[in-house]
Amino acid sequence: MVLPEDPSMELLRDLLSGGGPDEELFRSAHLKLLEEMGGRVYLRGLVEISNICRKNCFYCGLRRDNTSIDRYSMRPMEIMGSLRRGYRQGLRSFLLQSGELLGEEHIEMVAGILRKCSSSMPGARMVLSLGELPEEIYDRLRKAGGHRYLLRIETSSPELYSRFHPDDPLHSHSSRLRALEYLRDSGWQTGTGVLIGLPGQTAADLAADILFMKRMDMDMVGMGPYIESPDTPLLDRADEILPAETRTLLTLRMIALTRLALTGVNIAATTALQTLSGSGLERGLLAGANVVMPNLTPGRYRESYSLYTGKTSVGDTPSEMMDALRDRCLAIGRELILSDPGDPPHYRERRGRGGYPDDNR
Ligand code: 5AD
Ligand code: SF4
């Protein structure tokens, strides 16, 4: 299957709704990945630094109004401990994730971690996923040593977005879009992604999401299936939720079509995909994904970072995790890469095109 460089919305929609042979689609996407970037699988060590969030998204277990989870913020020492354990295992890229928190204390704590990593963990790429923050804070975090930022648009459709978020200025689709554009244009390696299989979401919505990520010139993509989460308003619509295998297949088609439609981008086989399907890791990688995010969050916090039910992880200690991942990649003919942060070629290419400020790093 050869997808035109600028696939039409209609073609993407038909392939997403299962109108084509899936195996051929996945094989083509995998082949494009191998030709473009090789069979390497890059790692991002994930540390979930706080589960406190000021937002109230209808699908998410960390939403502000959910009083049934224990809230935590890791102390800087604990975060550095988790990062160093990963670094010793050979990881060279780390993702700090939290709910959306604006407090100066939180931001300065993250900046402090970034500065420490710059000086004590040479070669490490620091990735942040801390939600929508004021532009000057994005700048501050970049100067402190941040390299990449992930901000999922969740859905590119403002109308669909409004169905899954409260109707207030805190949950504005256009502000989220502006934040993403700012990140992209201010030097960050920038990633976005969407939720797949939300009740009422159509194949046309998802097709538009792929075209959105292409138009937005993204360097990285992380998208996963929607998974039921207890104590969230969306569960009131449980009868509209698609079967798990349908959501898995939709996610794999999204990965494959994104791989085919975009060039030189990193695409993650996300935890949500691995949670919904036992072989989600392998299936994601074989559909064109090239990034996996082993969880380095200390065990005592893991359960409280409950975005959704049943969140899976591979192995308990970093070394068990790395062994399991290496074996699973090898079994499908792919190579797990340590000691290389795996910058997406798209980032270099887009900077080469100009129009973005110089990075100096
Ligand atoms: N299922 C799957 N992913 C979810 N997220 C939040 N809630 C859920 C859910 N119920 C994702 C969102 C967010 C990321 C941190 O987690 O896309 O951006
Ligand atoms: Fe907060 Fe993100 Fe969950 Fe929304 S999806 S409630 S912003 S953690």
Could you give the order of the helices and strands?
A: HHEEHEHEHEHHEEHEEHEHHEHHEH
Question: So, CATH architecture?
Answer: Alpha-Beta Barrel
Level of helix content? 40-55%
| Mean pLDDT across residues | 94
Distance between the termini: 40 Å
Strands in their spatial order, largest beta sheet: 2-3-4-5-6-8-10
Class, according to the CATH hierarchy? Alpha Beta
**What is the fold-level CATH name, i.e. the topology?**
TIM Barrel
Rounded to an integer in angstroms, the radius of gyration calculated over CA atoms is 19 Å
- Give the percentage of residues in beta strands: 5-15%
> What's the main sheet like?
7 strands, parallel
Global geometry = globular
Number of strands: 12
Q: Uncertain segments of ≥5 residues (pLDDT<50)? A: none
Structural class by secondary-structure content: alpha/beta
Ligands in the model, by name, code or SMILES, are: 5'-deoxyadenosine, iron/sulfur cluster
What's the CATH H-level homologous superfamily? Aldolase class I
The number of helical runs is 14
Number of structural domains: 1
Overall description:
The model has no long low-confidence stretch (mean pLDDT 94). By secondary structure, the protein is α/β, with parallel strands linked by helices. Helix content is 42%, strand content 11%. It has a seven-stranded parallel beta sheet with strand order 2-3-4-5-6-8-10. It is globular. It has one domain: Aldolase class I (TIM Barrel). It has 14 helices and twelve strands. 5'-deoxyadenosine binds next to loops.
Topology:
Blueprint: H1 9-16, H2 22-37, E1 40-43, E2 45-50, H3 76-88, E3 93-98, H4 104-120, E4 125-129, H5 135-143, E5 148-150, H6 158-163, H7 173-185, E6 189-192, E7 195-196, H8 203-215, E8 220-221, E9 224-225, H9 244-261, E10 266-267, H10 271-276, H11 280-286, E11 291-292, H12 299-302, H13 318-331, E12 335-337, H14 345-352
Parallel strand pairs: 1-11, 1-12, 2-3, 3-4, 4-5, 5-6, 6-8, 7-9, 8-10
The structure holds 5'-deoxyadenosine and iron/sulfur cluster.
